[in-house]
Amino acid sequence: MNESPNRRAVIVGFFVLLGIIFFVAGILMVGNLHETFKNKMEVTALFDDVNGLQKGNNVWFSGVKIGTVSNLHFYGKSQVEVLIKIETKARQYIREDAMVKISSDGIIGNKILIIYGGTSAAREIQEGDTLGVEKTFSTEDMINTLQENNKNFLAITNDFKVISKGLVAGEGTIGKLLKDDAVYANINATTASLQLASAKAQELVASLATFSANLNKKGTLANELTTDTLVFKSVKATVFQLQQMADTATAFIANLKKAGTNPNSPIGILLRDETSGARMKETIKNLESSSQKLDEDLKAAQSSFLLKGYFKKQAKADAKAKEVQ
Amino acid sequence: MAIFTNRKYLFSKGIDQYFTGVQRAYSFVSLFFKEAFKRPFHLREVINQSFEVGLKSLPLITLTGFIVGVVFTKQSRPSLEDFGATSWLPSLIGIAIVRALGPLVTALICAGKVGSSIGAELGSMKVTEQIDAMEVSAINPFKYLVVTRVLATTITIPVLSLFCSFVGLFGSYVNVRSEEASSLISFYQSAFSTISFLDIFTSVTKATVYGFTIGIVGAYKGFNAIQGTRGVGKAANQAVVLSMFLIFLEELVIVQISNWIRYF
Amino acid sequence: MDELKQHIIDYNKPVISISGLFKSFGDLHVLKGIDFTLFKGENVAVLGKSGTGKSVLIKIIVGLLKPDKGEVIVLGEHVDKLERKELDALRLRIGFSFQSSALYDSMNVYQNLAFPLIMNVKNLSKNDVDSAVEEVLEAVGLQDKANQLPSDLSGGQRKRIGIARTLILKPEIMLYDEPTSGLDPITSSEIIELINEVQQKYNTSSVIITHDLTCAKNTGNRSAILLDGKFLKVGTFEEVFESDDKQIRAFYNYNFIQ
Q: What is the CATH number of the domain that holds C202?
């Protein structure tokens, strides 16, 4: 008799609970659901090093999220095959000759896979295509090279500073210099290597320019630097070296110029010699422009918020040193 | 159908009882919405209860909000210091407190303080037949006791939550101030620079939902207290446990929804 | 006491008539076919052991519980078929005195008494409420307790205030749930006196649920014995207890030998 209302209560309760569970589960899942409903296609890419890329990381094309990394596994001896799920909507924009690289998104960001390039002449990518991979230097690699170059350059410029000082200093030295074939040959060789170094420096400075420009941009290379204190330290060291180098180069150029105005100085003789003179001129030009650029870059680096603290400290130390004096 | 009608229980005794409980809670909540919009509104009692709820929890919320602000700032500082980004501290704390900590801390404290007291009060009224007494005096106890209290918590807890957020930010400022010079105005300005209208709106919505939950759970448990002093204690205890559980569940759902709104 | 009962009982006017009433809670069948009539101006004492469903009976009369089966007509209305509003209107005409008094412990005595009045009667002036409260306090003889909290009152005083709270709405029917339980004999007799005074002064019909024979004897015009969900016997106190029924004798002896 009184069983039926009780039975109804049980049924109502059952469905209410079911409804709540579906509602909550629905809300929590729908966030990812609209993705599930999108049509996807799969392509692959082979990497030597995926830099910590993970399953589920986003895939960008022209800065737009177009898919995710669906899986990674080892391939061959040490390579990693990355399976990429791409929305079919984006397919028409990605060509067969597009490349992929690994980057990261935001400060302390996740790794992302970036698809870039591709020419409209090539056909659209197809299910199962393998995209080309660009070997990207890690920041560490880059910094290491930079440091090596700097050391070399510093050594050379230091040498040259000494020599050029000598040139300015006295005639006695000039006579000695000019009479001594070995020394002359040495100068010539130094000039040649200086030229090489300065050309390299210019290259280096160019890359540094983009580097320091990036430093000021949030969400690019700088992130990696900040996440890795070791790298950050070496950046500091590099910048310090560059600064020293710039100082030396300036001094050197000033010396050379001074020497050039003195008609009796050996520099005149050097300049008269056609081959070495041309080389010398070029070198000086290179040096001048590169040192100027170095200055600019240093300024850029200084204004970057990451290195601000370091430069401030240095300025303080300088000020203190002056006070002591 | 014969199989069904012959059986005494649909599932088993325990499961049937559980679902009956769910149904009871469901009809309790729907009764609230039915009664809340009907006359008489007992406005004076709503105001009384609001004062009760607000004043009762104010000292505790002030203290807790302040401490949460201080501690959270203290704890976040080292990780931001690594990036030399301590200047972001106010924004970080602002977001953390307004979006999450303010409403949550307020709700949890009120669940303990207000929810249990509603559960115990209504529970003891139930046990000592005061609710029946009201009923036979032709006063709808659901309207007079439940609706007023639930409305009171629903109105008061968002206010308390905003207050808690402000106090929390002040606590954070006290810590920031002790580490580096910063004026209160500049602190609040940078704290609020990252907070959007949506954040405030979500925060208030959350607190409103929590307030409703605390009120309705406390009232439900009290109203359905079983006889005896144990029933009262159990009602108060369950009111706290269940409302805290529901608050976290709602937090999850609301954050999910607000994130849709934020990113779409 | 006999003089007090001299008021008119109209045996042609039933105020409560119950027939074929069944009520069970889960597997527990409490009431199994109750037939009962209360006439205007009459006091009926319902006797029975604890847990026999005496309280359930009056809770059904006032609509706190719904019957499973049977007809309950109170003041001409089918209680179980009323809408909330109609039921409330009916309840205003019934006074219910709870076993535990059920005073609102957050309010003082004055507020307890004024509460049903303020809630149910619109546009009352403060003076109206004051005089109504004073009147019922006088009726129960506790004029000086208006500003005390229920927790400061003794059990007997609480019972009185509980009765006063129902009187303030001038009910036609009074339902007493164990009015003397937990009280010492002297206080009990005071309450019994009060019940009779109320019957005279307010011209009410009452159902008095009790297991106290003294109470039943002194308040009830008729007595009814509830046993196993049915009325075993209904009649005047003497009629009922002159019976040779074993169970009734046992009940009688227990009460008076102790």
A: 3.40.50.300
